[in-house]
Amino acid sequence: MAYDTTRQPPPAEGIPDRLYGRRRGHPLRPRQQRLLDETLPRITLATPESPRDSFPMEAESLWLEVGFGGGEHALEIAEKNPRVALIASEVFENGLCSLLTHLIPEGEEATAPLPPSLRLWPRDARHLLAALPDGSLGRLFLMFPDPWPKARHSKRRFVHPALLPLLAQKLRPGAEWRIASDDPTYQSWVDEVMGAQDFFDLAEHHTTHPEAWPRTRYEAKALREGRTPRWWVWRRR
To answer: Is 167 helix (H, G, I), strand (E, B) or coil?
Structure first.
C-alpha cells in the first residue's frame, strides 16, 4: 500500500509551501495511464519511516533524487550503482510515465519485474523528507530544478534557508548533496543561500560537465540555448 500523504500538514513552519508546479502536461495516452494505474503502485516507496523495507535487497546506502524530470538521471544512477537503494521523487505525471516507459515492456504494466534498487515517490518531497529517519541518506540529488524565477515564487525553491535544517538532519555526516542548474537566477541563489549556512561544506564546483555525472535532457537543452550549467557538491558536516 502506498504511503498516504493526503492529510499530512507541512513538515515544519517556514518550509516552502510547495516544491512543484503542475502535475500533468499533455493528456496521457492509454499506455501511460496503465503505467500510472498498474505499475506505479508497485514501485512506490511504501514505508518512508523505514525506507529500506521497500527494497528487496541489502543496500550499502540510501540515496534520494528530488524532481527527477524525465528520469534519465535516476535510471543511470540506479543502473551504475546496483548496491545502492535509490528513491526517485517526482510529482509530474508525464515525467513518471517517461521513467516507467523505459522500465516496463508494453503489455506487462502489472506483471513486469521491478528493479530491486529503485523506488519512486510520486508525492510532495517535503513529506518524504520529514518521514525519513534522521541520518539515513548517503547522497541527495537536485538536478536542474525549476528555478521559480519570480520573486513571489522564490519560497518554492528546494534550495531554501528554511529547508536546510531538515536536509541536514536527514543526511548523515559526510553525505553529498549534488546540485546542478543552468538558470543564472538559481545559480546566484545557490551561492547566496549556501554561502550563509553552516550545515554543508563546498566540496566541488564545476562549470563544465563533471565526469561520472549522468547527462540529462535539461543540460542538453541549456547548452543548445546558450546557457552555462553549473554543478556543485556540498558535503554534510
So the answer is: helix
Amino acid at 190: V
**In contact, 86 and 119? CB cutoff 8 Å:** yes
In angstroms, the Cα distances linking 233 to 74, 111, 148, 200, 201 are: 17, 38, 22, 9, 9
Query: 180-229 pLDDT, tens per residue?
Result: 999 999 999 999 999 999 999 999 999 999 998 999 999 999 999 999 99
Q: Which residues are catalytic?
A: 146
Q: Are strands 84-89 and 230-236 parallel, antiparallel or unpaired?
A: unpaired
Rounded Cα distance between 84 and 94, Å, is: 26
Contact 114, 50 (CB under 8 A): no
Q: Edge-to-edge strand order for the sheet containing 84-89?
A: 118-121, 84-89, 61-66, 137-143, 171-181, 230-236, 200-206
118-121 and 137-143 as β-strands: parallel, antiparallel, unpaired? unpaired
Angle between helix 72-80 and 93-103 (nearest 10): 40
Instruction: Please state the domain extents for the chain.
Output: 30-236
- CA atoms of 122 and 8, how far apart (whole Å): 15
Rounded to two decimals, the pTM is 0.91
CATH 3.40.50.150 fits 30-236, yes or no: yes
